[in-house]
Design a protein that fits this description.
123 residues, mainly beta, Thrombin, subunit H, 6-stranded antiparallel barrel, 1 helix, 47% strand
Length: 123
């Protein structure tokens, strides 16, 4: 039986458009998606293509004007239809995102601090 493990606090995206590539054996062309939120263990996307549960993908955030170019290999954990031809997809990353990269995404306005969550503090 699969054990549910909740994600760490999620941080909302500023609506940045990202690229998703299916791997291996999937389409080699990039699928455009909207990053909804990101945590240290995963992310949620909105896209026009259905992805299969347990499928591996690579999500890329590229914003050259902000000096951001990061890739997140991940596994699709769930996919549900939001509306006609629009899907919400939850993915678990292959490793835990380090705090430095998370901080860079905040500084470059890719992510915003959610009002209902306490601010990140250094310990």
């Amino acid at each position: 039986m699969e054990r549910f493990v909740p994600r760490s606090p999620r941080h909302s995206s500023t609506g940045v458009v990202v690229e998703v590539r299916r791997s291996p054996g999937g389409t080699t062309s990039a699928i455009s998606a909207e990053l909804i939120n990101l945590s240290r263990e995963g992310f949620q996307l909105r896209l026009s293509s259905r992805l299969e549960k347990e499928e591996t993908v690579v999500m890329s955030i590229r914003a050259p004007e902000r000096d951001v170019d990061v890739m997140f290999p991940a596994t699709v954990r769930w996919c549900r239809e939001e509306s006609a031809e629009c899907w919400l997809v939850g993915c678990q990353t292959s490793w835990q995102l380090d705090l430095e990269t998370l901080g860079e995404l905040f500084l470059n306005e890719i992510l915003v601090q959610d009002a209902e969550q306490p601010p990140l503090t250094a310990t």
